[in-house]
Amino acid sequence: xxxxxxxxxxxxxxxxxxxxxxxxxxxxxxxxxxxxxxxxxxxxxxxxxxxxxxxxxxxxxxxxxxxxxxxxxxxxxxxxxxxxxxxxxxxxxxxxxxxxxxxxxxxxxxxxxxxxxxxxxxxxxxxxxxxxxxxxxxxxxxxxxxxxxxxxxxxxxxxxxxxxxxxxxxxxxxxxxxxxxxxxxxxxxxxxxxxxxxxxxxxxxxxxxxxxxxxxxxxxxxxxxxxxxxxxxxxxxxxxxxxxxxxxxxxxxxxxxxxxxxxxxxxxxxxxxxxxxxxxxxx
Length: 283
What we know:
Elements: H1 2-22, E1 26-31, E2 35-40, H2 51-57, E3 61-68, H3 81-95, E4 102-106, H4 108-117, E5 126-130, H5 136-140, H6 154-161, H7 164-178, H8 182-194, H9 197-209, E6 223-228, H10 234-244, E7 252-256, H11 263-266, H12 268-281
Helix pairs in contact: 7-8
C-alpha cells in the first residue's frame, strides 16, 4: 500500500513538473562552451533561427538559444505575456550566473535585450540589436500612447476571429515585407501560422505598448545596432534609429544593404561576419 501511495505521489509530481515546463515563459537550448551569449529571436520566431550563428560560435562561446512561449510549437502562457517573458529572461540570467553575458536580439528580441540592459543588477557585457527599436509602437501608431492599447480592441478581436484561409493570406503578405528571400518568406509565414493565435494577437499588443526610449538613459554598456536598409532606404532608416535612440549615450550603427527585416536570412554570410567582428571587438 505504501509503495502504491509513493508511486502515485511521484507520478503526480512528475506530471506537475511536466506541465510547469510546458507552460514556461521561455525555453532555452544551450550549445557550445565559453563566454555566454543569450540569443533572443523576434516575434513568432523559434530559437532555431540562431542555429547557423551558434554553429559558428560554439567553439568559443556558450550559446543560449531562446524560444518564447506560444511560438515555435511551445505552449502559451497567461497574459500579460511580454512582462512575464522579460522577467523570466532576467531570472534566467541571474539563476544561471550569466552576468557579463552578451545578449543578441532580433526585432522584439532586440527590444527585450534593450530592456535587459536597463536592469543594472544584471551587469551585462554588451548587447547587439538586429533591426530592433526601443518603441516600435511610437513608430507605427500616430499620437502614440501606450495606455490606449488594450487587449480587447476591435482590431485584436478581428484577428482572433479570422478563419485559417484569411489568416494565411495575411501571414503571406506580411512575410513578403520581412525578407527579400523567397525561401525565407515561406519560413516566416509558417512561423506566424504556427504561433498560438492569442499569443500572436495579445503578445503583439504587449510589444507595441513597451516604450524604452526614456529607459535608454540607464544603459552604460556597449550597444551595437544592425539595421536593415529595406524597404525604406538608408536615409530614412538612419533617421528613424537616430530619433528612437536619441537617449542612448553611445552605440555602433551598422546598416545591412539590400536586406529587409530578417537580416540573418537575407544576408547570412555577411551577418555572421558582422557578429563575429562585433564579439571580437568587445573581448
